[in-house]
Every structure is written in C-alpha cells, then in structure tokens.
Design brief:
Elements (H helix, E strand, L loop, with lengths): L1 H21 L3 E6 L12 E7 L5 E5 L7 E3 L4 E5 L2 E10 L7 E7 L9 E4 L9 E7 L12 H10 L6 E4 L10 H15 L4 E3 L20 H6 L9 E5 L2 E6 L4 H6 L10 H15 L5 E6 L12 H13 L4 E4 L5 E8 L2 E2 L7 E3 L4 E6 L17 E4 L6 E8 L2 E8 L4 E8 L1
Parallel strand pairs: 9-10, 10-11, 13-14, 14-15, 15-19, 18-23
Antiparallel strand pairs: 1-2, 2-6, 3-4, 3-7, 5-6, 7-8, 9-21, 12-13, 16-17, 16-19, 16-20, 21-22, 22-23
Helix pairs in contact: 2-3
The chain binds fe (ii) ion.
Length: 420
C-alpha cells in the first residue's frame, strides 16, 4: 500500500515535471509604453508569455540580487487551442541610463534566464547610442520558420543595442496567432535585451476593406504588444533623438478605396503635425527619425503616390532628418530630399549638413527577396548590387549618425555618415 502511494506521488511529480518543461516562460520583448509619449529614462515594459497565470518579474540593479518583484494581471490567450497567458508589465521609477537585471517566472514553475536592459539617458544627452534596424521579417518562402530572420537576430545580438526598430511586415499573415508567437520566440535574444519598437506593415494588419478592422492589427497583436498611444502611431525620445512611428496600413489597397491613412485633417495627421512641431521646438532633440512600413520614395507597386502625398508635407515642414521604411525587400538609400529638390553631394557615403531628409528602404530581414533596388530613380544614391538579406546598425553620437548595413554573412554592404 505504502509502495503504491509512493509510486503515485512519483508519477504526479514526473507529470508535473513534464508539464513544467512544456510550460516554458518566454517570448520576452521589452518596450516603452504609455497613453502618450513614454518616459524612456525612467520606465520599461516587460512583456512575456507563460503557461501559468501567476508569473511575475523579479528585478534589480545587481544580477545576483533581484530583490524587487512586480506582478500584473495576465491576459488569457489561445494558440492552436492551447491556453497560455500574456503578461504586459510596466516598471516605473527606474534610474536613467542604468542597467537593470530581470527574469520572468514563478515559484513552483520555471524561471527564464536573467536578462538585462539599460534605461534611456536623460533627454538631450549626447552619448553614443546603438540602434538595431530591421524590417520585413515575414515568414514567407525561404523564411517559413523565420530561419533567415534567425540569422539576422544572431548577428544583431553581437552589438550593444540600446533599442531596435522594425519597419513592419513582422509576420506573413497578422491574423495567424501562431506566427506572432513563433516570431516572438525567435526574436527574444534581441527583444529581451533592448526595447523593440516596431511599425506595422500591410501583412501585419487587416487587408479587407469591407471589414471594420481594415488597416488595423488583429487581437493577437494587441494582446501581445505594449507600445505607446494606440500601438500604431506613436513617438518616443531617446537621448537626443525623437523617434516617430507611423502606421501606413495597407497603403496600396487603401489608395484604391480613397482610404489612404494620414490624410490631411484626420485625427492621426493632426497628432503627427503636433508631435513633429513639438519635437522641432525641443532644444534637447538633435535628430528627428520617422519610420513606417511603406516607402515615401520608391517605384513600381511599392510606390503609393497617395501615401507620399499625405506624409511629405509634414516631413518637409518639420525637416525630418531620416525616414526609414521597408515593404520592398531590398536595401536602397536615396539622396537627401526636401520640397522635391535633391541635395547634391560629392561623397555618396557622407551627408554633410544636407538640406533634406535621407530616405532609406530596409526591407529584407527574412522575407523572400525581391528584385533589385534603384530602378531608374534619380534620387537613388546606393542600392545593393544583388538580392540580399540585411539589417542595419545605426550609431548616433551627438551630431553624427553612422549607418552600417550588413548581410546575413556579416559582410558590410553599405556604410554612410550623416552630420548636422
Ligand atoms: Fe509590405
């Protein structure tokens, strides 16, 4: 009898053990969040998934002493019918420019490895910042399991990233929950160590013009991400940089319906107008960097004149320095342009106080490769000579930006500087 009891207990422990292995805590992605512009110097959102409903964060300034704990009510989610819980937790009252250590998990279940992040410096600080730039990681042909994206991620983790920004088309089909969870799992080495602040692409949002959610993401996105404002159009400051993120929705399809986003006088347009005006006036801000999915300067079907028409007046008016986009799975870089006039430069690798905005398409961090860039556009100053998967490392140091672009074999394919 006693033996049977011991055996039953052993089986229960064994079963619990296997459940624990199954119930791995993960998909960690850091971000900044808030109803308006977040305070990146004093806050950090930690977002993760677990198969238990009592997962928490423990954190501290010393990796050996994670003395603080914080919990948040989870969101019950289902992935292929399997229940789990998403956590979106915001830490506040952090110190600027400081490294914090953290892990997610719960007593009696599993704990993740200990990760670290660094809070943003105080606004206006002119230190050196490293930003990972990627886009179009969508899981289509050649990247069905994000295998190309995984190579990009491995390379990006070698840099001391302060944050990473994504140009959208994160997944191939935004309505398929499983692909978001797959992406977040694959991306964790980058997104758990530095805030991940994406723009959304046409593949991430609802493309059906007859549905109420047209050009908006699906519930799986809202349940997983924890970004500022409405998660789609938002801005944040990091040191001396003002980043502004704009949702271009399904620009190509929307144009046919007369529903291109950011139309003059719309709520979003007015928000962007106010946001850029305030950044331009802010003496602490050296750089204004705008990113979105659809390019402003492009060709073929990627060029949506209505999208360009809506955005350009604000980009020109507030003298945005850098406009980063994706959508076309190529890497291409344009001359600086303002009010339709191309800034002429002697050195193609150096923009010296340019009168204009530098436009770049970074759309190939995994999604199937498309043609080559630079099809007979006078503004193109550089494009990769062959089809190539890429990511970029942007280093901002005071009044200078250095932008290095690499392929997935770690060859540098472009490097330029921008000084103001
Ligand atoms: Fe796209």
């Amino acid at each position: 009898m006693m033996y049977k009891k011991v055996l039953i207990i052993a089986i229960i422990i064994k079963l619990s053990g296997s459940l624990l292995v199954f119930g791995q805590t993960g998909n960690i992605h850091l971000s900044w969040t808030g109803k308006s512009k977040p305070d990146a110097a004093h806050t950090m959102a930690i977002n993760w998934n677990a198969y238990v409903s009592n997962s928490i964060v423990r954190y501290g300034e010393d990796s050996l002493q994670l003395n603080f704990t914080k919990r948040v009510k989870p969101i019950e989610v289902f992935n292929n019918g399997v229940r789990s819980y998403n956590y979106k937790l915001r830490l506040s009252c952090l110190k600027p420019g400081l490294t914090y250590y953290y892990q997610c998990g719960s007593e009696g279940s599993d704990w993740t490895a200990i990760y670290s992040f660094k809070t943003a410096p105080i606004q206006g600080s002119q230190d050196k910042y490293v930003v990972g730039v990627w886009g179009d990681t969508q899981n289509n042909t050649g990247n069905l399991r994000f295998e190309q994206t995984q190579k990009v991620i491995r390379l990006m983790t070698k840099y001391p990233l302060n944050l990473s920004i994504h140009m959208g088309d994160i997944v191939e089909n935004g309505s398929v929950e499983n692909t978001w969870y797959q992406f977040l799992k694959v991306a964790q080495p980058v997104t758990a160590i530095a805030p991940f602040m994406p723009a959304l692409g046409n593949h991430d949002v609802n493309n059906k013009a007859n549905e109420a959610g047209f050009q908006k993401p699906f519930s799986v996105f809202y349940n997983s991400f924890n970004l500022p404002r409405d998660n789609l159009n938002y801005s944040y400051d990091y040191g001396n940089i003002h980043f502004v993120v704009v949702n271009s929705g399904f620009a190509q399809g929307a144009a046919k319906e007369g529903r291109t986003l950011m139309q003059k006088g719309s709520t979003d347009y007015n928000w962007l107008d106010r946001d850029l005006a305030s950044a331009k006036k802010n003496k602490n801000i050296t750089w204004i960097i705008l990113y979105a999915h659809y390019p402003i300067y492009s060709f073929g079907v990627s060029h949506v004149p209505e999208w360009q028409y809506n955005l350009l007046p604000l980009i020109d008016k507030y003298q945005v320095d850098l406009c980063l986009t994706g959508h076309r799975h190529v890497y291409e870089r344009h001359k600086a342009i303002r009010n339709g006039k191309e800034y002429q430069q002697t050195d193609p690798m150096h923009y010296n106080h340019p009168t204009g905005t530098v436009y770049i398409t970074n759309g190939s961090s995994g999604g199937s490769l498309q043609g080559l860039g630079g099809n007979q556009m006078s503004s193109i100053i550089f494009t990769a000579k062959e089809k190539v998967y890429t990511y970029a490392i942007m280093t901002v140091h005071g009044p200078k930006i250095t932008y290095d672009v690499y392929d997935i074999n770690n060859n540098k394919i472009d490097s330029f500087s921008l000084v103001k």
